[in-house]
Design a protein that fits this description.
heterodimer
């Protein structure tokens, strides 16, 4: 069975540009979450979606947005990129995104803003 | 506000040694706790998931314990191997179902 797949694996963008990151959850999983991990730190929560509805949002500016599609895949969009947005962006899927279930993470997208 | 702390930040041990990684959290209102492994530049691999009602979980050479009332978890690695070298992260699921991570313990197992 395929795990959580993220694309692209790496990309380089210029300050002020926009970026879209994509995530396909494990088949049957209905919850997708996004995390940002800067070097040397643990991942920080950005968004959680369940059944195409936003369930939670972390402490990130409005430049960050996301959505979940009917097939449960998800996109994370970041506008007006800043140097500080350079990080590893991780997608995680869960059967239901509730307390009884763990999360499975993808390999991440490494974003570099220059 | 939930905070997760991992001690030590880095650890270097000779091959074959048994070791313990520590994780503490400030709010005991958690659904579960998960331990992850992360290789350099890679994503997270789930190692063990402990529900809030459980005390421990085991998988192979790994054993994780949870003491929710004291806000502590430990990951025990038996007979460490060079292939165990990685960063180990613990994360608690809070009341809104999001994961709060520690900063990790960077482990080096020397041959």
């Amino acid at each position: 069975d395929a795990g959580v797949t993220q694309s692209p694996t790496h990309l380089i963008k210029t300050r002020g540009q926009h970026v879209t990151l994509r995530c396909s959850p494990i088949s049957g999983h209905k919850s997708v979450s996004w995390y940002q991990q800067v070097l040397g730190q643990g991942p920080q929560f950005i968004f959680q979606y369940y059944e195409k509805e936003e369930r939670g949002r972390g402490n990130f500016p409005d430049r960050f947005s996301a959505r979940q599609f009917p097939n449960y895949s998800s996109e994370l969009n970041v506008n007006a990129l800043l140097l500080g947005d350079s990080a590893l962006y991780l997608c995680a899927s869960s059967l239901a995104g509730e307390g009884g279930y763990g999360y499975t993470f993808g390999s991440g997208t490494r974003l570099t803003v220059v | 506000k939930q905070e997760v702390t991992q001690i030590p930040a880095a650890l270097s041990v000779p091959e074959g040694e048994n070791l313990v990684l520590n994780c503490s959290f400030t709010d005991s209102a958690i659904y579960n706790l998960q331990w992850f492994r992360q290789d350099p530049g890679k994503g997270l691999t789930s190692l063990l998931l402990i529900q809030s009602s459980q005390r421990e979980q085991t998988s192979g050479r790994l054993n994780a314990s949870l003491d929710k009332s004291s806000g502590r978890s430990t990951l025990y690695i038996a007979a460490s191997q060079p292939g165990d070298s990685a960063t180990y992260l613990c994360a608690v699921m809070d009341s809104s179902y999001k994961l709060i991570f520690g900063s990790g313990t960077r482990l080096l197992v020397r041959p």
